[in-house]
UniProtKB/TrEMBL annotation:
Domain Protein FecR C-terminal: 242-308
A Pfam family that the UniProt record links to this protein: FecR
Sorted UniProt keywords: Membrane, Transmembrane, Transmembrane helix
Residues passing through the membrane, by range: 74-95
Lineage of producing organism: Bacteria, Pseudomonadati, Bacteroidota, Flavobacteriia, Flavobacteriales
Name under which the protein is recorded: FecR family protein
Amino acid sequence: MKKEELWLLIEKYADGKCNREEEIFVETYFENCQENNIQLPEEAAIIKSRMYGQIKKTIQKRARNLKLQKQRKVFLKIAAALLFIIGCGTVYKLLNKQEFYTETTALGEKKTISLPDGSVVSLNSATVLSYSSGFNEKNREVTLSGEAYFEVTHIKEKPFIVHTKHLNTKVLGTSFNINAYNGNHNAKVSVTTGKVNVYNTGAVNELLIKNEQLSYNIPNQKYTKEHRNSANDIAWKDNVILLDDIDLETASKILEKWFNVSIAIEGEGLKSKRIFGKYKNPILDDVLESLEFSIGIKALRTNNQIIIKKKNSS
């Protein structure tokens, strides 16, 4: 993404005119930039003033409209992050020093890209990956929101770092999967070859090797590290939906992204029902029929809207 495009996108966000995909990009990108602490040059004061006014106005407008306290806190947190960055001059640095490139996938879409260093990244649906024009100069850093599988070219003197909202993953040359969708309760890193260092500004600082996964619980800021078959975590690359002992609520989120649908679950206890299933080249109706049979539910579908109820409910 060129600096002019990034500037227009920031203004669009401040005015509340972004679609959800653009919002995800702006929020993830700026939250991952907070560690920078660069003083704003005098000649860039106009940028600070202009952005501050726009964001302040948007905060006031949205605060009046938002009824839920949780939503208000989320928005104010994002706004604070933006104001912090504007105040310390990072926006000026980003817009004037480098260009930025963004790769995105829509709901139901997947694609594979090659980075300037020869590394290959497979993007799952509803994913945003960004990197600067300075990538592969002194280091290699990308920002991710969503899920992606990385096959990193080995360059000893240039570490490869993936920044997500809650975790950073550092490697030299290896292959691994990161699942870090906004809105999920957990962010996960799974290694298929080599070794990675997963860390954040809190208590996380772990080395992972092949067939190890780190799962970070976002609400309580705790994590687990376990051995598991990493091939299961990248089944999506081969167009396979693997529902491996997960609850129906989590399975529904996977299906929503995979098929670009909206799923509502109605009925006491249904969300926590455990799901097992493997679907190669899946068709939505076939998956729903299988779930109906295996856990005793009824899936009512109208175009892209699906309601899941107990089988005996009306």
